[in-house]
Amino acid sequence: MKKAATRYTRADFQSDQEVRWCPGCGNFTILATVQNLLAELDIDREKHVFVSGIGCSSRFPYYMNTYGVHSIHGRAPAFASGVAVANPELTVWVITGDGDALSIGGNHLIHALRRNLNLNILLFNNQIYGLTKGQYSPTSEVGMRTKTSPIGSIERPFNPVSLALGAEASFVARTIDMDRNHAKTVLKAAVAHHGSSFIEIYQKCNVFNDKAFTELTGHPQRDENRIDLVAGEPVVFGPNHERGVIIGPDGAEIVDVADVGIEAITVHDPTNPDPGPAFALSRLSHGPHGPTPVGIFRDVPRPTYEEVMSERIDRARQEHGPGVLADLVRVNGTWTIE
Amino acid sequence: MPEKTLTIPPPIQRDQVVIRFAGDSGDGIQLAGSQFTAASAAFGNDLVTFPDYPAEIRAPAGTLLGVSSFQVHIADWEILTPGDRPDVLVVMNPAALKVNIGDLQPGGLLLINRDSFDERNLAKAEYDANPLEDGSLRGYHVLTAPMEELTKAAVKGTGVPGRAALRSKNFFALGLISWMFNRPTEPIFDWIEEKYGDDPVGKGNAAAFRAGYNFGITTQEYHHTYEIHPAHLTPGVYTNINGNQALAWGLIAGCEAVGRPLFLSSYPITPATSILEALARHRHFGIRTIQAEDEIAAACMALGASFAGHVGVTTTSGPGMALKSETISLAVMTELPLVIVDVQRAGPSTGLPTKVEQGDLGMALYGRHGDAPLPVIAAASPGDAFNAAIEAVRVAVKYMTPVILLSDGYVANSSEPWLIPDFDEIAESPAVFATEPNGPEGEFFPYARNPKTLARPWALPGTPGLEHRIGGLEKQDLTGSVSYDPENHQRMLALREAKVARVADDITPVKITGDPDSELLIVSWGSTFGAVRAGRNNAEKAGHPAAHVHLRWLKPLPRDLGEVLDRYNTILVPELNRDQLARLLRSEYLVPTISLDKTKGIPFTAAEISDKIVELLEDET
Which parts of B503-528 fold into alpha helices (H)? Predict the structure, then answer.
């Protein structure tokens, strides 16, 4: 609809607050992408609610001229769940980081995904704690030296996409801060998806973890490593699409297209009810190294929590009429004193 | 003390009796007790009950740890407590006897399931000799019945299979005690029919009940029955409620009063869970309930719902309160309505999960990081939990603040007749939302305050033109922007404190009951109300009148409390904790207090209160 494109501009979504991230931070790009996307959507500005936890990325709501809550560390999915259930008309966003969502708030993230509330959960993954100035996070790689792992982290990191798929998420995607068009396309699909959308955004922290994503963003490695997932297309990558992915009984395997023929390459289907193939794709990399898929892994319909809740309330009211307290308190039987 | 006789004497009139049913936690004791209660309520007695059960759902059968009990006090006058010591003790196994016999009144009546006193059960109860044979029960009037044998015989032919028949033995006991106290039997048969329908278990229970009743009529061992006349209660329609039920209904009534939907998110925890269960059943009231993944999420969801315009409520007990603390601080900072219900249990840590304590007062008042004041209200009795919940909702919405509502395991689980109020008379105080910008240049200031209440405006997402951001970082006065300004932080802390202090405008002045001219004032709060009132009454009858103030709001305190405290030489503060209210009164008013603390996981008896009153007043003279 044309009206949507002309109704708002990016400026309508910029708040009066000075943006206070480090110069060069990937968050600036994501903020601009989101503001541009919102200007394009046919959703009233006052219907957007941005809820965040704690961390650099969680300052995001202050910079959006929408409704917003900067909540507490790790709890944004829970706070946002309350907002979404109370008013299903709202478009509720969760802005979180790798420490916020996967460490202190891991429990809330998986349960929000499992419940399928209508939330757009944006995980800014920079593989480091930025706000506290450089400690390892649950996505930092084994061996990574930080202030709290001076001779290298011994913890195996999470693969956020695998985790979300395992948590029964109905929409799972990965994108990269610097690729604005890709990010906007993925986020647009997330908004269109009815239910919890989980988007891992590889986000550059140029102060504490600068080169984390260069294998996916730099030249010429990018062309070798980035696997763009496109619905209905064979999963191929490489400078000349000469490599491809076959998902078989043992998981996903990278092959040379010339060896197997293009028809043998797996065609990507994010709507597959079986999360197995999406999970297999997510296991191709365990961090932004070597061939790594980006795009929409999974996008399947499932009733949202708040829809079912509202339906049940409506049905109960149809069956029993609106609740009357004076009747309710008589359920245990009564007696009369004259 | 009743005498054995072979003729059937007329019922003995009593003005009150305290009966305790006790058995293994798998014996259906709570069910037998609550059915006896229902029949007594229908008969018109005043009553108060006190169930007591182990934390384990099925502790090892027959052991001392697995004993469950249910005490009911019935009377023909208005009573306030479940009774200090039972006059009648019904025991279903040796362990129940061992755990409870110390409480039975000397010369009290002991009804025993004889069949359970075999070698195995005696060993589990750690009895060296059979107490039925060794003369140790000589000080009581003992009536034994082969309850299991007679239950099996009665249930035979109802279709209940062999071993399962024994499960009806609680109904045998109920039948026997119903005979003894001349209870109407229809309510029990009606209940069985409604609950079980055509299920053979219902027929088995009815048969066992009849067998117990008839055993009473025919036994040669005991012929006395007792009669307790209906009480003279305020006319009206009554129902029997426990505190959690009343609290759940009060939340509904409170939300109706402010005209906003009720949103409850909680995590199951003893003894608060049944509030969530009660509200989950009533979708047609438009109530949204969520069983959250943990206590923290429960609080955050409720606060999120409040941000979106519902009345967010979360219910829990001590350990869960500790987990919610950070969210409650966020509610203080964001100044959103939130009702946090703490059904206290004995702590610290997991403590005694099914036992009562008032140990969370300090946490409710101070248990947050930073200076984070909020109103705290406490329920005094099961019926009062209804009103306390309404008030908590009202204050939360009117003052845009989190409110902690303290109940406890005793209020939650005990029950009493409740005069059903006229719901049309519950005053409406509809929530007000911001709809227009309030700034001089058409902007919206989320922290502009109502000059009377100091509440900030409630602007709901979805309202055009009022888009704003709130959060945990300190807010600039008026604009709500993030502010690190030292002067502003100082001012905001003072404003939040002042707002909570304004709640005192809605608090009724101190009401003194008893003898206002006594030298001694008792100050109590929460569930000790009944025992303190009864103890005070008893002391007065014994010639030692005291004054009594029962506090409903713990923060803020009533404006005239300090002036009232100054009038008395001696201030007694009985609490089920270690001095927590006493410390508050001493620090707020610089008055000396005398503490009467009890931390045994059980409520005060009226005698403990009256003894202390007598002791203090005798010291005075």
Answer: none
